[in-house]
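Researcher: I've been going back and forth with a colleague about how 3-deoxy-8-phosphooctulonate synthase might be arranged in three dimensions. Neither of us has a model we trust, so I'd like an independent prediction. The organism is Meishania litoralis, in case that matters for your notes. Sequence below.
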Amino acid sequence: MDLSLIPQLKHIDSNNFFLLSGPCAIEGEDMALHIAEKIVSVTDRLKIPYVFKGSFKKANRSRVDSFTGIGDEKALIILRKVSETFEIPTITDIHQESDANMAAEYVDVLQIPAFLVRQTDLVVAAAKTGKVVNLKKGQFMSPESMKHAVTKVTDSGNDQVWITDRGTMFGYQDMVVDFRGIPTMKHYAPVVLDVTHSLQQPNQTSGVTGGRPELINTIARAGIATGVDGIFIETHFDPSNAKSDGANMLPLDQLEKLLTNLTLLRKTVNELK
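Model: Here is an independent structure prediction for 3-deoxy-8-phosphooctulonate synthase. You can compare it with whatever you and your colleague have in mind.
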């Protein structure tokens, strides 16, 4: 994977991990710009290659009345504005084949959600846009099985692909990260650890997903120590009022300390090689 091929990605020679971070969903222009501005200031100081993350719509919801988005085109235009304002690349997830070409007009990386990563037509549609494809490992899949998802992308003529681990289902309402899978998946593609989704507690009786954000620091440090290439963290300035996944998001004002510590840890890991 050649990070230099991603438009506007900075600090690629820093030997640091790269970061995918932002709100779960685009709720409006002001909130997106506010979050991006803060993360850019931190990542520039720490020399972290940074891609802004925001879902232009949320298709996998627990209830029919859950927030799904502000409108596809409206949200995608906001993602483009974030990119143009701060000169950074962006990533969003897609849910059906028709989303691929539409989203590719606005963002630099297309993400395949974990529940959909075995959907061949969707993965191939994303690959054929020529954009970087970020494959979320299914909660129900082994690390070894992600080789086949990666191959679907490369067989479609696109070698720009990542794997993102977001935990494995443990019972009905919990997620566990098996760090043994990180080196396995690194044989297939660069590996990102989705820290915040790994701490979800899905399938709550309320119909609202829970989470354990107090363990974000623990999981993130373990990921860096294990040798992940990138870190994925959803963050919001007011998680309790976020319209999606607020229960497992990192408060924005805590991000700088976390990334500072992870950067120090990464330097130590680099020296051990």
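Researcher: What would you highlight for our discussion?
Model: I'd start with this: The radius of gyration is 17 Å. After that, consider the following. The chain has eight helices and 13 strands.
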